[in-house]
Amino acid sequence: MDRHPQQIKRERQDKKRRQNNVSRMSELKTSIKKVLSTNDHKKAQEIYRDTVKQIDKAASKGLIKKNTASRRKSRITRHLNSLS
Asked: Do residues 57 and 28 touch, judged by C-beta distance below 8 A?
């Protein structure tokens, strides 16, 4: 089987991209869980702001779809509103 330099480069880039995507998704899921597990309204509000930013950024970069981002923001917003 022939191995072209471009194919080798593409595989190298794919590994880097996958590693970045896995890391970002893990960070996103962790921050969502933090909001949902917090019962203090003020503390949850601080974490909420950062989480919404992360969700929007992930959607704009193509890491998650637009509707998925909306659903997740809605879920954490409902939790935050239930605390007050």
From this structure: no
